[in-house]
Amino acid sequence: MHRAASKQPRRAAAAVNTIEIVQDTEERDWAQLLPDLVRKVADDLLSADVTEYIRLRAVCKPWRNSTANPSLLHPRFFPRKWLLVAGEELRHDGEPERLVNVRTGARLRIRFPTPKEYTHHGNAEGLLVLHHSLTDTVCLLNPLTMAFTDLPSMSAVYDVALPPPGAADDDAWTITAAGVVVVDPPIPTVVLSLTLGTHTAIVCAEPGDNFWRAVDVSAADDIECELPVIHGGLSVQGRFFVPTRAGDVLGVELGPQPRLTYVAKQAGEDAPMNGLNERCYLVPSGKDDGMLLMRTWGPGNIYYNVYTVDLGNSSLTPHAMGGTDTTVFLPSVTVRSSGFPNVLPNQAYAEENMELLLHGDFNVLV
Fold this sequence. Notes:
The chain has helices at 2-17, 35-48, 50-57, 61-66, 351-358, and strands spanning 82-84, 97-101, 107-110, 118-124, 127-132, 137-141, 148-153, 174-184, 187-196, 199-205, 213-214, 234-236, 239-243, 249-253, 259-264, 279-284, 291-297, 303-310, 315-318, 326-329, 333-336, 348-349. Helix content is 14%, strand content 33%. Helix 2 (35-48) runs antiparallel to helix 3. The strands form 6 sheets. Strands 4-5-6-7 form a 4-stranded antiparallel sheet, with no helix packed on it. The protein has a 4-stranded antiparallel sheet with strand order 8-9-10-11, with no helix packed on it. Strands 12-13-14-15 form a 4-stranded antiparallel sheet, with no helix packed on it. It is an alpha+beta fold and 366 residues long. It holds the Pfam family Beta-prop_KIB1-4. InterPro entries: KIB1-4_b-propeller. This is KIB1-4 beta-propeller domain-containing protein.
């Protein structure tokens, strides 16, 4: 029985091997995807990163026609996770600029038009603040979408912010931080934090304006010393904030007149006696749209305390860096440590190391 039955399966197997199996496949024309569905997918990608949105629009013309053009300077398209790896001078050798994603460590190379004519002076929620050397105009550029707009000239700053008494003729205001305030999208108001010696001025303007408006900084008045009362600033959640020397945080309010108002103050044991020898910085929290206050002191400002800025409760609470997977580069950058294997996790680097980061020297940071 076993021998007789074994011949039949062999013949069946041979027969099966000669049968051509044809499977129906349905061809899809992805370009004809419903516009509403394309927009839904695009919005999901945009919530992750603007680069994914740009890649989707590059697939075909119908998908581009179904989605909003990111060339507009709309807050939806701000490249908040991307940092230009460059100092004040842009590349003059024809090579593309480098950008790095502070969350993942991913890199991009993008060639800017006429880089020789511009210098780089800050980052405002991913937008680049540039100065045109020929026209003296301040400009705002989205480095991923190439959305671009002109702002008033740097010389126009002196119409609303006079040099302090005793300043030399060749002393000039320098940009220490830049940000955007979004009250009525899609038009952002650009804010510049400026220093000249130990003095600070803050100005603001909308794209297309011919003049700057002064921001009233009198709320932060303090006694003069070798450090400015206000230094730098940070743009988050469509608002611009500045730290005081004493470790308080103020925000720019645009109406009815541009001014600084307190949003959080040091209290109790954390309040310094005078703050004269301290320098404070605001940096992104690295986890969400929040921010941290770094209060530094000592030789070279090597000692620091960290506080979470709670805007909802107008408070500052001690923040433990350990286990947060974040690394801070003073004065204003926070990266996810796991995306940068050559940086120390849960640490803060002093300002001189920021130059190493901006020039791409990641390997010398450990």
